[in-house]
């Protein structure tokens, strides 16, 4: 499987459509640059608690 470098918008939209679990099925590894990780972290703080926990759990499964 190919590797991919992720950007904020695709990760955000995949999460919002409950399709984030497609990434490990499509790619061998998902590389998230530090700037993207920072943007995602900023987005997480605007979410309600349960959604924030879900995003953080999923983010922990990606290669940061």
Automatic annotation (TrEMBL):
Q: Name one Pfam family in it.
A: DUF3368
* InterPro entries named among the record's database cross-references: PIN-like_prokaryotic
Q: What is this protein called?
A: PIN domain-containing protein
